[in-house]
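Morning - pyridoxine-5'-phosphate inputs below, output right after.
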Amino acid sequence: MTNFSRPNSLRLGVNIDHVATIRNARGGDHPDPVRAAEIVASVGGDGITAHLREDRRHIRDEDLKRIQDATDLPLNLEMAATEEMLSIALRHQPHAACIVPEKREERTTEGGLDAAGLHNTLVPIVDRLRDAGIRVSLFIEADERQLDAALRLGAPVVEFHTGEYAHAILDGDSERTSKELRRINDMAALAAKNGIEPHAGHGLTYENVQPIAAIPQLAELNIGHYLIGEAVFTGLESAVRRMRELMDEAR
Ligand code: PXP
């Protein structure tokens, strides 16, 4: 994603999956995630993120091209490490592909990818995406072993899973919150030192985004569920603007 206009820039990628979730609840065309992508573009969002899940519970195959045709924003395609998803990514050529773990029964992406344990599965997928000019990102826990695995795979980007941090805040556990924050902070610094661009996402809200946005090495946050939820009350435009303001304030 290439918005370099802000000093010390932290990009905001908006995950529009849950617009599609609402659409799919009735099986029709409304609300259209493409319209959400256009709104994100109009208010200065830096990118669109979408997860094409194996069960197609959010966006569907045909949405990908429609999203790409509708805006010039870079598309970050979240995908499981499967042959099916690889061939879809190669066909659509998104700006970036973020490899995520995926279990059919989970409600959302719970936990990071085991990049260390899956090294042999990931090598050909990362290589083929990279050879096609797609920027590969690995969605991992902020953990040295996983970061080391990302380095060995030659991934240019990692996205740190902020779910545990978000849960610690919800539980009112300040010790765990500090520990999680420190972990993300330390691993973002280590990633940057090793030439990997660190991103973060999952469970971020107006209330918890600022300590994460303040981590200087982070280049991008990907935020979805909360923004789409807020959009029900205030509109997507206003929700994206507010998140942007909070992120900028924290830098
Ligand atoms: N980043 C990645 C890799 C994800 O899988 C998700 C959830 O799909 C998000 C960010 C956004 O998480 P949330 O919807 O909780 O903001």
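Note: The chain has a mean pLDDT of 95.

O.
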